[in-house]
Amino acid sequence: MSTSQRIDGASGPPRTSEFIEGRRADASPFEDELWDALDGIPDPHIPVSLVEMAMIYDVTESDGHVEVEMSFPCMGCPAYDMIKNDVRSCLRVIDGVDSVDVEVVWDPVWSKDMLTDSVREKMRESGIGL
Q1: 113: buried, middle or exposed (CB in 10 Å: 19+, 13-18, 0-12)?
Q2: Which of 56, 67, 74, 109 is deepest in the core (most CB within 10 A)?
Q3: Are the beta carbons of 39 and 110 closer than 8 angstroms?
Q4: What pLDDT digit, counting tens, does each position of 53-90 carry?
Q5: Residue 128 has what pLDDT?
Q6: CB-CB contact of 122 with 47 (8 Å)
Q7: Is residue 104 classed as helix, strand or coil in its secondary structure?
Q8: Has residue 106 got a pLDDT over 80?
Q9: How far is 32 from 26, CA to CA, in rounded Å?
């Protein structure tokens, strides 16, 4: 899927980048549902979701256990624990999810190149320079 297409089939600019679309490409339908749920968690600093921010790297599910790989734009984020708790809380209420582990990874290193133009614009409008 290219960045000119949206996951939900609606028109308009893409909400997620090629990086995220590549990560979601092999997701099962249930894992896709989990990705969509995570897309509802806002970044606490700017008006975009964790998925739009390309902070979620992978979501896998096996027998009710979900593993989320995520990264942060910078080390030492003051919202680190809060965001990880938001991810766990978001997924634990979904039918079929018994447990959630969140692993923070630094490879690949998060980059602003992972953002779509629309996310960059939202960040600029919020006063965040890229």
Answers
A1: exposed
A2: 56
A3: no
A4: 999 999 999 999 999 999 999 888 888 999 999 999 99
A5: 82
A6: yes
A7: strand
A8: yes
A9: 9
Q: Spell out the long-range contacts of 17-23 with Cβ–Cβ below 8 A and sequence spacing 24 or more.
A: 17/54, 17/114, 17/115, 17/116, 17/119, 19/54, 19/113, 19/114, 20/51, 20/54, 20/56, 20/114, 23/56, 23/57, 23/58
84 vs 20, more confident: 84
Q: Do 59 and 34 form a contact (C-beta atoms < 8 A)?
A: yes
The two structure tokens encoding residue 43: 């970044």
Mean pLDDT across 87-115: 95
Pull the structure tokens for residue 118.
Answer: 């629309």
Q: What does 37-103 look like in DSSP terms, one character per residue?
A: HHTTSBPSSSSSBTTTTT-EEEEEEETTEEEEEE--SSTT-TTHHHHHHHHHHHHHTSTT--EEEEE
Decide: 24 and 128 in contact? Cβ < 8 Å.
Answer: no
pTM for this predicted structure? 0.83
